[in-house]
Amino acid sequence: MTRTDSPLVVGAVRSSPDSVLRVSNVVLGHGKAVVLRDIQLEILPGELWFFIGPNGSGKTTFLGAILGIHRITSGVITLAPELASRQMVGFVPQRCDAKATLPQTVREFVDLGLTRAGISAAERRENIAWALEMTGISDLAERDYWSVSGGQRQRALIARGLARRPSLLILDEPTSGLDIAAEESLVRLVVSLNRDLGITVVFVTHVLALALRHATHVALFHQGRITCGKRDGVLIPELLREAYGLDEQLLKRLSATSIQERELHDPRVHPVLGSLSQ
């Protein structure tokens, strides 16, 4: 297969020896029920992918398959050789899995990301300090994890995912439950990790506005399939109408201005589009 630069990649995978992740003809399901079929996707180093789609469209199931948690029904998922063991894949879950009754500092929480890492104590300390610095929470290191704000706890979750210095970072709806200011701050952090450190990112969200502002590539989950490619080729009115059932007024607002020129900072929030300007 040959790589294509077409904005839409449907039914064909861009083939490159440098792929971070390649998914070919994958079918996923729960029992006999098929959730996703004929998945074709390739992610290259340094790309910033947003996985979007309505609730229940299969995003979490697909993440589980990438992480090796959910078995595929058929097809092939191939990770780059250095990622094959998943040890160098950073994962940020939607919610904190730590017990609120267990006291621990932010530093101790981030250290959990190095469980069974097999590195020296010195390297462990260095990795934790680096992860805290990269997420802007070094000054919170000795604070109790549960005493800091929700946005700061989410940054600690990202720091935990960074502790192994991964080349691929996967985030499952990390802005869920945050207010608009904290959401934007967190997304800008993720964008900087991608842009400044070259970390390949997969960001799962149901907020379309975030993908409009920040994605280089998008995978749109809808009706048991995934449409994927460059952002401006996937986030088009026809596909969004099909996936979300958006009304004509909202589709016209999407079409009125180019994605690059859009500024979505209005405090009014649409449940799918997020913040919308006039």
SSE diagram, text form:
Elements: E1 8-9, E2 21-30, E3 33-43, E4 48-52, H1 59-66, E5 74-79, E6 89-92, H2 106-111, H3 121-134, H4 150-162, E7 168-172, H5 180-197, E8 200-204, H6 208-214, E9 217-222, E10 225-230, H7 231-234, H8 237-244, H9 248-256, E11 269-270, E12 274-275
Helix pairs in contact: 3-4
Descriptive key words:
single chain; 278 residues; alpha/beta; seven-stranded mixed beta sheet; three-stranded antiparallel beta sheet; 9 helices; globular; disordered N terminus
Short description:
The protein is α/β, with parallel strands linked by helices.
Describe the protein.
This protein is α/β, with parallel strands linked by helices. The chain has a domain at 1-88 and 216-278. It is built from 9 helices and 12 strands. The protein has helices at residues 59-66, 106-111, 121-134, 150-162, 180-197, 208-214, 231-234, 237-244, 248-256; strands at residues 8-9, 21-30, 33-43, 48-52, 74-79, 89-92, 168-172, 200-204, 217-222, 225-230, 269-270, 274-275. It has a 7-stranded mixed beta sheet, with helices on both faces. Helix 3 packs across helix 4. The longest helix has 18 residues, at 180-197. It starts with 7 loop residues before the first strand and ends with a strand. 38% of the residues are buried.
- The end-to-end distance, rounded to whole angstroms, is 44 Å
Helix content: 25-40%
Order of strands side by side in the largest beta sheet?
A: 1-10-9-4-8-7-6
- Please, what is the average pLDDT? 84
Please give the radius of gyration in angstroms.
Answer: 19 Å
State the low-pLDDT regions, or none.
1-15, 257-272
Based on DSSP secondary structure assignment, what is the total number of beta strands? 12
User: Which structural class matches the secondary elements?
Assistant: alpha/beta
Order of helices and strands: EEEEHEEHHHEHEHEEHHHEE
Strand percentage: 15-25%
Name the overall outline: globular
Largest beta-sheet characterization: 7 strands, mixed
Number of helices: 9
